[in-house]
Amino acid sequence: MRTDIEGIAADWLALRDSGAWTPADAAALDAWLEADTMHRVALLRLQAAWDESGRLQALGAGWKQPGPPPRAHWTLPAQAPDVAVLDADPPYAPPDLRDLEFAPRRYARANGSHAARAFAALSIAACAVFASWGWQSYHRVESTSYHTALGGLQTISLADGSKTTLASNSQLDVHLSRRERHIDLERGEAIFDVAKDPQRPFVVDAGSRQVVAVGTHFSVRRDAHELRVVVTEGTVRLQSPAGGTHPQPTTLLPAGSVALVREDGVLVRSIPIADAEQLLDWREGLLVFRNATLADAAAEFNRYNARKIVVADAEAGALRVGGSFRWENTEGFARLLERGFPVRAEYAVDRIVLASP
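Given the sequence above, the corresponding structure tokens read:
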């Protein structure tokens, strides 16, 4: 969708600069810009001279000499010229046992019934030890905590084969056992790519609600007063935790669902899967808005940046914006607004204030 809009915007600019621009073309362009804020943003973006560039750096494997390394350079490090070789152990010398004498032993003659009882006792003890080991192994829990700082992202491979990507300023605790996979999302947002295992449900606990999956792809975002679940593959179950004080009905969320959980209930929207995946574009460093208020867009930028966007008045906060933006480019976002929207900006080191003119 973004590519189509930007392509149309590029066509409009090319036509406008071709010298064959007519009043009818201008009217058609105005109508196209009024149809969607994303159109306006795309045109402004193409007009603006963005002074951004990226550089890619190739990662070397550590061999800095010209040509390939010699044979067995990696497999036999002890033979490398700059690595010392440890001395081998001294040759083994057997002890002198010529003067060794064994003391006489006394053997007790046990009858058959005693031997049978001893064997039975040993068998019972062995079974008890094995049963205890199996019980402990079944219930053993491996726990690990992960967190990201403001502006950080982290992708983690879990021991069960699942993967999770943590958004900025997020924390989760992972508890894996042979009976269940339990994740406590303490704050922030995470995307889960769950390995299929019908015998071990994958449970994400986010306060008042749990998201349960067997093998699927979804995200959970926990804010102060709201929980958001986005499903892009498979089906998950949204339920209240066992023993909760205010149990709520269980909701099944198929792919393309966006669920918002608040104190007053659950709101579920069904959208195209491609649109649901765009809500997770933050893992690629992008924030995507579709007819969002400027206040909401500013709050989203602030989740990733120490330099905050402050919306000074309600009129500016109610403006509708759309498009995709790099989440670290707050100043570029503000300057784009100044070019095409009734907004003025004041730039400081720790914040950018947006206000109506």
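The radius of gyration is 33 Å. Try to locate this feature in the token string yourself.
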